[in-house]
Give the backbone structure.
Amino acid sequence: MKTSLSFAAPADLSVGRVTIENESGVVSEWVATPNTRGLELEDCAPGLYSVEITPAGMRPQSFVFEVKPDLPNVVAAPLYSALAAGGAAATFQGIEDPREAAERLHRSRKHEPSQPARERLAVRTEPAPTPSVTSARVLTIGLAQDEKLNAFGGWRPYFETEPTIEFATGGGLNLLIAPPRDAVARNPRIRLSAALEGVRVERMMIPLFVGGTRVAFQNSPLVTPDVAIQVTPLDPERRALLRALHAGVEDEAVAVFRDILGGGSIGRFVEGDGEDPWAAMIAALLAVRFPAVFGDSPADWGPMLADRYPWASDTHVVLARHHLMSAQSGVSRKAAANDALNALLAAQSLGSPYFAYANQLMGEMLGGLAALRDFDGTLVERAELQLSKWRDDVPLQRSAGAIFSWLRSDPKLRRAGSLQPYRSTRGNLSDRYSRIVFRGQVDLNGVSVLAPAASTAPKAFDTAEAASGLSVAASIDGSAAVLASGGASPSGRLPEAPALARPVTVYDDPNAGRFGGAASAGGYGLSATFREASDATWVDVDLVVRAERSRPPSYSDTVEFFLHPTFNPSRIKVTFRGHEAALSVRAWGGFTVGAWLPEHGVELECDLASAAGAPRVIREL
């Protein structure tokens, strides 16, 4: 029987290079998109294979697997997020002795691998050091929506679908926004504000992509607590478009042009139920950035997008580029320059663009128009004025990945004639203009929910009172976790817990008896262990769902933990890492924890007061 290999790149890979090597050298290399993730080899050599995955604009990650002889080998790469959670070291999948496998791959290479490659194939024997917490800064995140698309003063607190919050390994926090499409049509302009104590107040326009949008806040491992922000679509094809624009590499642009845009069409993004103005804007900006790839096909995109989505600054920037590129004769060049400048003025009047590349284009075109000194004096004066305004804002300009962002200016310094970021913030936002969707803190270990000011036992509260929102600290010890105040995840694909349809029978412990009553079922078990907290009035509770060893390891299955309603949030989803999904919470007072495994239809529950080793503050309060 032949030895064959069916390989699939990570499911969360949007666009990036995949290189597969065995002990003889490179087997295959290609730029993968959501539509070209797979590789089929009908007759391949058995042995060890290493795969290097490099998403556009991100660091490479490696994993190693073994192709067994005389078998049809089917290999699905772990999620890129799971690979990245392990740091620079490679992930070894289904290999009993990773160290020996790494040495075999090193010895078999005809040429000595580069130092970065050696590091990626290294085997981590000790956990990565965790930075010590030296201080913490308050972080507040708010959303606002524009009720007056073409006028100033329309910003009001966001009132559409409640966003979902996701804590990820490495201390990151993700905000998932997926409003109904009719809400997007009514209020397409959404602004996010993030205030970090003593550092800055940063704002950005949020694209409401079809399929949802993720805003990731990643803590900095440097000396002082900080966060970097990145905005991406949840849909892999749209994410591929954005990655290609941000990376600025022609290979990725060619791949998305061919596999996602079907050779240069944006009809799917401007028509029907799949209408997505922001995906169409990205495609148009890609066409500007890579004219050799897109050719003449986007010639009419600028006028069409500006007419269809006049509320977006980016569409007017694309329109300005269209005017400049369409000029032919001397007379038409003068008219085109004036039309381009008018489009740029319209873009500036709407405020900040969505995409950082649109802001870059605006600066480049204003600079080009201001340099036409022998062409049209009046036009040059107007262009110089707008270019001066654009340059004045440069100290406040930033980017969140491919998204343009800007900083609030210091009002005192501004009155003194200096435009500098406002750094005296206490980390707060006014709820007059923004809906506060998260309030927590950032330290060198990551982002966390702020603990309440006072200790209160869960059972001291009536359920209705508890639902009003007492904040309790929670930390994640898994690959990723979603903290939701209610409702399904943005994808909506996984079933809700059956317990939610069952009546509450114990009013001060609403999970009791609703999750099947057993801590073990279907090859999974829920357990709780207890540790002394830094504050003696609290107890740290480590909750773990373990799969039987006979089950294959997973890096994508999830567990949804249901805590007492006094926790805010009280529902937390955690992704498995191998055979375990773990969550740590700080508590005072006993309650029943429910667990739901949607991929397997398994329910579990554990009464903390009855768990082995429960301390007095859990057993008796």
Summary: The first strand starts at residue 4 and ends at 8.
